[in-house]
């Protein structure tokens, strides 16, 4: 039998968890691919090589999702090479860490975490290659980015989706078991330190 203290604790966590998602989704524009392309940044061949080398994949699908991102957003100002663990059963969590690099130098180790709500594909651990748009310093990423995983563009075993906060756009690219191709809605919070708190 659950004690009153545990029941209150669970209710309190659920309340703040829901408020965190609502705040992130209400305070920013809906995530979208539509935005003005950036003229300066990494070229498509450089990104395809970096992503292929890191993800260990040279399939046509990876090339197509990268081409999709370049067509819609132009050249990224940076990228993240990272690893993440994620899992869901209606309510899911995602944790990750990676190295952020910018075209004109700079970058740092960066971490991310966040809840998601939807119909996901269960637990997984995988590499992720994130394209970064309209950001030129690490501080531009230290915020919550709403995401719509259900709108993922998927082809040939590779997928990319969009996260957006203000003018900054992130496009995580995943392969195989890294894909969470469900109707998942939540946010991802990027930080400079590792934390197990998804809020």
Please report the total strand number as a whole number. 10
Instruction: Name the helix and strand elements from N-terminus to C-terminus, one letter apiece.
Output: HHHEEEEEEEEEE
> How many domain units?
1
Our measurement of the CA-to-CA distance between the termini, rounded to an integer number of angstroms, reads: 28 Å
Fraction of residues in helix: 10-25%
**Classification by helices and strands:** alpha+beta
Over all CA atoms, what is the radius of gyration? 17 Å
Total count of helical runs of at least 4 residues: 3
Q: Regions with pLDDT < 50 over 5+ consecutive residues? A: 4-10, 12-37
The largest β sheet comes out as: 10 strands, antiparallel
- The coarse silhouette is globular
Classify the beta-strand content into a percent band: 35-45%
| Average residue-wise pLDDT | 77
């Amino acid at each position: 039998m659950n004690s009153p203290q545990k029941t209150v604790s669970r209710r309190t966590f659920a309340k703040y968890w829901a408020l965190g998602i609502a705040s992130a989704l209400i305070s920013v524009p809906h995530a979208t691919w539509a935005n003005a392309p950036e003229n300066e940044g990494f070229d498509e061949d450089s990104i395809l090589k970096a992503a292929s080398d890191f993800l260990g994949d040279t399939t046509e699908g990876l090339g197509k999702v990268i081409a999709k991102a370049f067509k819609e957003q132009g050249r990224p100002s940076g990228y993240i090479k990272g690893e993440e663990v994620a899992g869901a059963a209606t309510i899911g969590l995602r944790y990750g860490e990676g190295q952020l690099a910018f075209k004109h130098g700079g970058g740092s180790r960066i971490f991310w975490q966040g809840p998601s709500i939807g119909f996901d594909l269960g637990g997984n651990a995988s590499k992720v290659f994130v394209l970064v748009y309209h950001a030129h310093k690490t501080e531009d990423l230290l915020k919550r980015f709403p995401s719509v995983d259900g709108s993922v563009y998927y082809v040939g075993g590779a997928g990319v989706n969009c996260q957006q906060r203000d003018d900054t756009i992130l496009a995580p690219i995943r392969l195989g078991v890294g894909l969470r191709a469900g109707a998942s809605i939540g946010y991802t919070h990027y930080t400079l330190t590792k934390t197990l708190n998804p809020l």
